[in-house]
Amino acid sequence: MLAKNLANQAEDAAQSDDSACKIIFRRRVARTLRRPIFWPAGQFLTRHARSVAAGIALAATAFLGDACRSTPTPPGAATSAASPHGGALVASIRTEPVSFNRLAARDAASDLVATLTQARLVRINRETHEVEPSLAERWTSSPDARQVTFTLRQNVRFSDGHPFTADDVLFTFEALYDPRANAVLADSMQAGGKNMQVSAPDSRTIVITFATPFAPGVRVLDSLPILPRHKLGQALQDGTFAKAWGLSTPPSEIVGLGSFVLAEHAPGQRLVFARNPHYWRIAPDGGPLPYLDRLTLEIIPDQNAELLRLGSGQLDATYTEIAADAYATVKRAADEGRVKISDVGIGEADTFWFNLKPGAFARDPRAAWLQRDELRRAISMAVDRKAFADTVFLGAGEPVYGVETPANKKWYWTGTPKTPHDPAGAKALLATIGLEDRNGDGMLEDARGQAVRFTVITQAGRPRLERGVSVVREELKRIGVAMDVATLEGNTVAQRIGTGQYEAVYFHVSRSDTDPGTSPDFWFSSGAAHLWNMQQPSPATDWERRIDELMTRQIATLDEAERKRLFDDVQRIFAEHEPVIYFAAPHVYVATSSRVVRATPAITLFPILWAPDAVAVVR
Amino acid sequence: MTRYVARRLAFAAFLVVAVSSGSFVLARLAPGDFVAGSLGINARPETIERERARYGLDKPIAAQYRQWLANVVRLDFGTSLLYDRPVRELVPERAANTAILAVTGLTLATLAGLLLGSVSATRRGGVLTGAIRAFSVVFLSLPPLLTSLFLVFLAARTGWFPISGIRSSSSSPAGSTLDLLHHLVVPACALALPLAALFERLQSQAMREVIGERFVLAASARGVPWSRIVWRDALKAALRPVAAVYGLVVGTLLSGSFAVEVITAWPGLGSLMLDALRARDVYLVAGCAGAGAVFLAVGTLVSDLALAMVDPRARE
Amino acid sequence: MGQVRHLGRRVVRRRTSHGRLFGLALVVVAALAATAAPVIAPHASNRQFPGLLNAPPTWPHIVDDRGAWRAPFIYRWRLVNQLEQRYDEDRSASLPLIWFKGGTLVQSSDEVVAPLLLLGADSFGRDVFSRLLFGARISLGLAIVASLGALLIGGAMGGAAGYVGGYLDDGLMRASDFVMVLPAMYVALALRSVLPLVLTSAVVFTLLASIFAVVGAPFIARGVRAIVRSERRLDYASAAQALGASDLRLLLRHLLPAARGFVAVEITMLVPAFIVAEATLSYVGLGFPDPVASWGTMLHDAANVTVFADFPWLLSPAAAMFLVVLGLNLILQDGTPIKGVARSGAGVRDQAASRLGYERPM
After folding, report:
1. What is the pLDDT of residues C218-239, one digit of tens each?
2. CB contact under 8 A, A460 and C310
3. Counting beta carbons within 10 angstroms of the beta carbon of residue A508, is it exposed (0 to 12), middle (13 to 18) or buried (19 or more)?
4. If pLDDT is split at 50, 70 and 90, which confidence band does A593 have?
5. DSSP structure class, residue A120
6. CB-based contacts of C29, cutoff 8 Å, min separation 6
């Protein structure tokens, strides 16, 4: 062996150490093609090119997923005339709930669990935005809007059979305002900054008194689930209410008035709910509600996995609406009949605002113009909202010109001025406050030669925000305004907003209800969510003072027409000074599997499961 | 020997404390805190202050740190702000899940990597070597996010394996191990492929060097079959670089690879750590970082012992 | 002294193999493409085409519908459905390509309506091919600089630890463990909070390169330490020492180069990891300003299910990364078996042993 190899090597002294067979083969090839034996190109073609070609072919087949696409599963039969009762639904959530006690947890997953297992006095219909009776059959408000009297439904039982009375409502409010319980909803269940007073003249009546006249008082009760005294009363007395009904509680202990009961909890994986046999609502056809026998919430942290499962039929409803980016994939599944997509209307726009706190830019040479109304109006005029909607929401968006959109039929001011796309007018407007292109470089400067340049902060990792802010930057460049974008981490942005360390912000601020009276923190200048200048001891500008007055009156009167008129005035003032600029809002698309025959998709935190008792699947 | 191990353990303990403390302090120093993040921008200042006092976040860093250290000595690692459960419960629960995944992935990767590395080292050229090299470079250059995404995508398309989760909802106790294995395939592959590529490259390199050595020539001249030389003697000598990084690999795997865990919804330590980092949950971050340090210390100790085993020259 | 040097030098010169050449070609092409990006790229990296979001690539054709041969031309894309991002090829008009006009190599004849999109467009309507070229400068430059930095730091640490041993070894290795386990995200966040709000590309580049160099060093340090430790006990090392070589010389000339193969593999691993890590750090705000393209952010934007199924051209940075890393690997980690000396300083080698070759391996 050794000798043979040495002989071979001696023959091809300049070759690398190849096997004998290879050398002979190459010789033959070389002779046929009349090339010298050590033909580098030949070696190139026979050695590493093959490996590279193999690698590229591997990569190519790997990335073209079409090659391995399996045949689509047959579409679910959605045309069932059979009874809608029965069946199971699988939905997804992003994170595990922190607690089964709604008063102890802020996260959305805990809110969803409470929506499924607990009931409230009233329920806001997210399609019509009207208040509907839930545990309270009917209610009357006193003329001064300071008191509401509820008549509770009779013969209602908790999921363990225990009867429901007004005492449980009293208990819930006790727990809500108990300082040891640290209830997270305590701040939102207030009127005029003070707690509500609750009393129960008899076991069927509840009287709630507000410290100041509060017309939307009934609406805020939609977020308060009624808890059982017989299960949690002891914990409240002992001072351990905040820890009650934690994640390790056995499911049989979680008792509520909602449409489902918790059946099983696999930590980190899923929550399984079964129908509540004592649920008090009846279906229109006389059968029991909920329609579903079983509801599973799978914990899927990643949106990609969620979409894949929806597309392959393993999931019936997603956690949130479908973003415009993911629409193409879901549409394909819809074309194959596995998925249904509903367009539920216009959602919420993202917000762009400047720091309008007086003195925020005290020593900054730009203080003369950075907080001026004209700058904001010019920005509003410079951005082509149609192109904005096309780029950020892929055409599935509508221009928005004010705080309310036409989707809010009840409160939208039809006279909202639609700011035209007018870059020339924007430049002229800026010239009136002294911002002109003084040195011919295409960008504006102020009277002292300071460039018109400011920094906007936004949150990283949210495509809507990143795209929106880049569109705005390009549009502003065209009128000569330089905008720098600093994308920061979410918590950092929240902290900067809270402490006022920013020049401008592009962020998403969501509201829970369409009635403006339920967001006093945004409208009042003393509010904690008065974005551009939070928690003012007294209104800093005249127009903010006028808004404060109008809102105070708006909240205090029960007359719907009067409230609408007052709020129209508020919107007019808002449009004049535009402290927050809105550009466009997306169409909201909700996707469900084709098994779901009855659902009421709406623009709300949980598009399908906000009304879990009305969801039905084909069996 | 025992002195060596004792010294290493002492250093490891020091490392764990240093890492936990460092993470704790950094979590406090980073802008924003848990309360600001969880309450959002709409919160009233009184609420913010009250919540901060409740969690102890209003105290100066030094005071909170001393309090935490005093508790740690009593083996109380604090309560997670995000999950409202003791860290002492959360971390081992998730670490067990990650360990299942890590052990499976590591076994697969080691077998595949060493095997393929030896094969590609002992052949000279040819399609097989080129293909193995291309495979390794593909998975070394692909980001782990894309690898896991691609595998999940394949699983969805073919329907052979579950896309995400650790167990199905309808698994009977008898078939639960089988169900777990079924769910384990996609995440373990996502974890194993880049590792196998790394091991293959390292092993191939080292093996090639070893084969050029004199003892191989000597053994061959004495008539020892070539395959035995390769698979018994050369392999052992070539394990040195792999053994050197093995500890790091074990340590980082046990801390959880969050790209894989998030995309395949595997409830492990990596995704726990990511959630804790994002939410600025100081106690959970300190706990997870400490756990990671423990795993790394154990891993490096194991790897150094393994190194001493395969390469007697490296013994002290 | 001369004898020491002779001992250190390889006896047989290693021939440059064709694998190496191919790798070199790949890397050189990548480097040239990156440096010549302003000329080769048809568009600026942040030029957006509003009606062409996620448009597929416009393949240049040379044969038209009637079978005739023509100069290269493209068809334009007509938008069928904007929300679904579906396009149709408009075969009614063919647009020839124009060469060497407007400062770029090649362009379409109607840039406004039907631009040349060799690799399609991304979700902003920007040309992927141009962004790939411009991004190569940033990403490859950053990754290579950071890898060299990691090599320096890790090599120094590992070499010192392996050579000296004892407490220095333990201390250095624990320090490298500390760096590895500490959550880098918080360090980055803390760093970001002390920096000014708006950062220039140069500042971000230096910052990222230093962070990556420090974070990547432990891997290299560990392997180098193991190799140096075992090499130190070999005959040639003691021989060199007996001949009067200083510690530093021994380390630099003989021991560290023995880790060359290991380092080659590590660099192959670190370069793509750094490219991707740049995108991860942009989450905490330490990224390049928006108009600057980089492969990491391109891949991050493309890492979702929709892309795999519908817009696979957005994954071209991954293919480009694969080619570059393959090239690097081919250069550093040669395909042919090492002839003659396995590593430098191994002493005098028997030529016959090197010619042993490899029989049928198994």
Report:
1. 989 988 988 888 888 888 888 8
2. no
3. middle
4. very high
5. B
6. none
Residue A175: alpha-carbon gap to chain centroid: 29
Of B39, B54, B265, the CB nearest to A301: B265
Burial class of residue B277 in the structure, from the number of CB atoms within 10 Å of its CB (0-12 exposed, 13-18 middle, 19+ buried): buried
Burial class (CB within 10 angstroms; exposed 0-12, middle 13-18, buried 19+) of C167: exposed
Is A488 in the C-facing interface, judged by CB distances under 8 Å? yes
Chain A to chain B, count of Cβ pairs less than 8 Å apart?
A: 167
Q: Which residues of B1-33 are buried (b: 16+ CB within 10 A; e: fewer)?
A: eeeeeeebeebbeebbebbbbbbbbbbbebbbb
pLDDT value at residue C358:
35
Closest chain A residue to B263 measured between Cα atoms? A302
Q: Distances from the Cα of A273 to the Cαs of A90, A223, B172, in angstroms?
A: 10, 21, 18
| Cβ contacts of B36 within 8 Å, gap of 6 or more | A491, A494, A495, A498, B43, B48
**Residues B47-70 pLDDT 10s:** 888 888 888 888 888 898 999 999
Considering only CB atoms, B277 lies closest to which of C178, C183, C308, namely C183
What backbone phi and psi angles, to 5 degrees, belong to B267? Answer: -75, 80
Selected residue of B5, B120, B140 to mutate for chain C interface (largest C Cβ count, 10 A): B140
**Which of C18, C297, C313 is the best mutation test for A, with the most CBs of A within 10 A?**
C18
Q: Which tokens in the block code for residue A80? A: 């069932």
| Distances in whole angstroms, Cα of residue A410 to Cα of each of A404, A555, A565 | 10, 15, 11
Number of neighbouring beta carbons within 10 Å of residue A281 = 15
Q: What are the per-10-residue average pLDDT scores of chain C (362 residues)?
A: 40 60 92 90 86 88 82 87 87 83 78 86 90 93 94 92 86 87 84 86 92 92 87 83 83 82 86 89 84 88 85 92 90 55 31 35 28
What are the C-alpha distances in Å from C179 to residues B19, C99, C213? 9, 51, 11
Rounded CA-CA distance C257/B271 in Å is 40
**Measured between alpha carbons, how far is A219 from A142 in angstroms, rounded to an integer?**
15
The answer to whether the beta carbons of residues C254 and C8 sit under 8 Å apart is yes
* Residue A19 confidence class, pLDDT cut points 50, 70, 90: low
For residue C82, give the nearest of A40, A63, A395 by CB distance.
Answer: A395
Tell me the whole-structure pTM to 2 decimals.
0.85
Contacts of B181 (CB under 8 A, 6+ apart): none
Token duo for residue A578: 């535009």
Structure tokens that stand for B118 in this block? 């030896």
Per-residue model confidence (pLDDT) at position C334: 62
The CB density around residue A222, as the number of other CB atoms within 10 Å, is: 20
Query: How many whole angstroms separate alpha carbon A271 and alpha carbon A295?
Result: 8
Residues 186-245 of B with CB under 8 A from A: 221
What is the token pair recorded at A227? 């808890």
Within chain B, residue ranges assigned H as helices are 2-29, 34-39, 45-55, 61-73, 87-122, 127-141, 144-158, 176-211, 214-221, 226-228, 235-238, 240-254, 258-263, 269-279, 282-310
- Kindly determine whether residue A19 and residue B124, on different chains, have CB atoms separated by under 8 Å: yes
- pLDDT at residue B92, as a whole number: 92
According to DSSP, the β-strands at A584-593 and A205-209 are: unpaired
Interchain proximity C339–A17, CB inside 8 Å: yes
Are the C-beta atoms of A64 and C312 separated by less than 8 Å? yes
Q: Name A523's Cβ contacts closer than 8 Å, sequence gap at least 6.
A: A516, A530, A547, A548, A551, A570
Q: CB C289 to CB A328 under 8 A?
A: no
